[in-house]
Design goal:
Family: Belongs to the ComF/GntX family.
Pfam family, one: DZR_2
Shape: globular
InterPro entries: ComF/GntX_DNA_util-trans, DZR_2, PRTase-like, PRTase_dom
Oligomer: single chain
Bound molecules: zinc ion
Organism: Candidatus Woesebacteria bacterium GW2011_GWB1_39_12
Protein name: Double zinc ribbon domain-containing protein
Strand order of the largest sheet: 1-7-6-2-3
Strand content: 15-25%
Length: 222
């Protein structure tokens, strides 16, 4: 045990039990999320976009692992501040265990986290989706690349806005990094929380316009 963990023993963010930030029993308490088609929001196995909802620039599907509540909600909120790296590591382990039993995504994937606007990222020093996405990618045997998309302009944080406003606010906000050449045909856009899906949908359009064959969305929670 290192000195830091002796002084600040890890306790579960959900129940206070010592040992981890996220304990297995708090994870087990979470209900299974019903997966939805990201476009009509009706039930769909594994969150796959219905054939009738699938258009040229659309996501092939979005899979969210847990409901945004309990220990997961607290962990995601904490991810932006203290002990972020440690919490991210634990989250990525639980996610990989979950995903390994669910053959949802195609093979030969590149995972890219939804980028933050660079000033915001610098202020915080990191992108929380990158922090979870990178170790998760390793465990899943996918490729990781956080330099595919660029977030162009400063906009109001999506959390301050509702449905229609969110879509308008995010429109045209992403572009392709000019120095990146598409290497695989399938991509996973990774974000922490799925709300209206407008961020993932907008980012998917950019990848698809630039030649990606399939773009999936993956979030920790919804
Ligand atoms: Zn717990
Ligand atoms: Zn649908």
């Amino acid at each position: 045990m290192d000195l830091i963990s002796l002084i600040f023993p890890k306790t579960c963010l959900g129940c206070g039990r010592e040992g981890k930030y996220i304990c297995q029993s708090c994870i087990n308490k979470l209900v299974l999320l019903k997966q939805l088609c990201p476009y009509c929001e009706k039930a769909s196995t594994d969150g796959v976009t219905h054939i009738k909802c699938l258009k040229k620039l659309r996501l092939s599907g979005v899979f969210s692992i847990w409901p945004y509540e309990g220990v997961i909600r607290t962990a995601i909120l904490k991810l932006k501040y203290k002990f972020a790296k440690e919490i991210a590591k634990e989250l990525s382990e639980y996610m990989a265990n979950y995903l390994k039993n669910q053959p949802i995504f195609p093979k030969n994937l590149t995972l890219t986290p939804i980028p933050l606007y660079f000033l915001r990222e610098n202020f915080r020093g990191f992108n929380q989706s990158e922090l979870v996405g990178e170790p998760l990618t390793k465990k899943m045997g996918w490729d990781f690349n956080s330099d595919i998309l660029i977030r162009k302009r400063f906009r109001r944080p999506q959390t301050e806005l509702k449905g229609k406003e969110r879509r308008r606010n995010i429109k045209g906000v992403f572009s392709m990094n000019p120095s990146y050449k598409l290497q695989t045909t399938s991509y996973i856009l990774f974000d922490d929380v799925y709300t209206t899906g407008s961020t993932l949908k907008e980012a998917a359009k950019v990848l698809k316009r630039n030649g990606a064959k399939e773009v999936w969305g993956l979030t920790i929670a919804r």
